[in-house]
Amino acid sequence: MTGPLTGIKVLDLTQLLFGPFATMLISDMGAEVVKVERPGIGDVARDSGPVVCGVSLYFLSLNRGKKSLTLDLHSHRGKEIFLALVDKTDILVENFSVGTMEKLGLGYDTLKKRNPALIYAAGTGFGQTGPYAQKPAFDITIQAMGGIMSTTGEDGGPPARPGVSYGDISAGLFLCTAVLAALHERHTSGLGQYIDIGMLDCQVTVQENAFTRYLNTGEIPRALGTRNPVATPFQVFQTQDSYIAVALKGGWHDQWPLFCALIDRVDLIDDPRFTDGWSRTRNFTELEPVMASAFRKKSTGEWLADLDKVGIPCGPLNNIAGAAADPQVAAREMIIEVEQPQGGTFKTVNSPFKFSRTPDGVDGYSPELGEHTALVLHEWLDLSESEISRLRQDQVV
């Protein structure tokens, strides 16, 4: 497969979710991603359940298409090999705690002297600076500290965590974006650079509207269930048999008159309390019972047909099984099969990128620990079989 990043070499020193998610996206776009792991231990995600036929589904979902190289970075010979690999590398990604690579003698200042074109991305909970730089972090603590859990859930209810690891995933997306930007800039300067991504920073960024509203009005955003804080209706409604999500277009194309006709309340069209999305939000207490009562009179299927007919954005509330079986998901080939040498065929999620000339996608399975050690050392560094065998004997790889 020839993706847009074909020919780019990546050393991936990350584990668990934040870093591996970013490097998986880079791999999906065609880069050769070599996962550098501790001999005999590897990424701790390898042991995460559920395990099916000896394969961790957690590890599978984040490391498809990568190569695994084991290397002891604490040994003198291991460091020598690592530095030689860096000489051949375009991008290095790590998510160690702040200062770990420097303690190993492998910090960015050392590496850029050998390879000035190296793009070095460090992902941590709080970034490389500030009072929390040395503080450990996981997704749940970052979500709590970043504020998103205070706006997730029902109004007046306890804090709720979104159904995905939003702290890790959003930071991985930002790291991937930053790496691609640095790669583009390198075409002009010929130089790499250091990228510092903090998960808490990313949480602030993805809540841009909540923060901007608070900073300029003093009103602290709160949990609103499925509602939008500035537009109405823009939420999930209970129907006769399940639930449906509905969102009106606003502005010059305000669909409020159409919506009122569908719920059989044309008397509300010119009501001054409901003239636009913001007005309807401010008067939600009066409007909500009317909408809720209307939606409970028909099934989700009936409402979907009525709303689709007039172009009002809507969709059923799917669980994961429903989303996986959705014909649109199938048409976009978002569920695929991969063959694992250990365990057979597994289904997994495909890459969302769709390129017209340089198609990307999942190209390979998740590697066994150290599976590609010999291959990488031979192809990248031209080491012989006997040299690699000696490294294994000395437990360097």
Helix content: 25-40%
User: If you average the pLDDT, what whole number results?
Assistant: 95
Q: What share of residues are in beta strands?
A: 5-15%
Query: Which CATH architecture of the largest domain would you pick?
Result: 3-Layer(aba) Sandwich
Number of helical segments?
Answer: 17
CATH class designation of the largest domain: Alpha Beta
Number of strands: 13
Radius of gyration: 25 Å
**Class computed from helices, strands and strand pairing:** alpha/beta
Give a description of the structure.
Helices cover 39% and strands 15% of the residues. The chain is α/β, with parallel strands linked by helices. The strands form 4 sheets. Strands 5-2-1-6-7-8 form a 6-stranded parallel sheet, sandwiched between helices. Strand 9 and strand 10 form a beta hairpin.
Q: Which structural traits does this protein have?
A:
3-stranded antiparallel β-sheet, Rossmann fold, 2 domains, 397 residues, elongated, formyl-coa transferase, domain 3, single chain, alpha/beta, 39% helix
Put the structure in a nutshell:
This protein is an alpha/beta fold. It is 39% helix and 15% strand.
Topology:
Blueprint: E1 9-12, H1 18-28, E2 32-37, E3 51-52, E4 55-56, H2 57-63, E5 67-70, H3 76-87, E6 91-94, H4 100-103, H5 108-114, E7 119-124, H6 139-146, H7 166-189, E8 194-198, H8 199-206, H9 208-217, E9 234-238, E10 243-247, H10 256-262, H11 277-282, H12 284-295, H13 300-309, E11 314-316, H14 320-324, H15 327-331, E12 335-340, E13 344-349, H16 373-381, H17 385-393
Parallel strand pairs: 1-2, 1-6, 2-5, 6-7, 7-8
Antiparallel strand pairs: 3-4, 9-10, 10-11, 12-13
Helix pairs in contact: 1-7, 6-8, 7-8
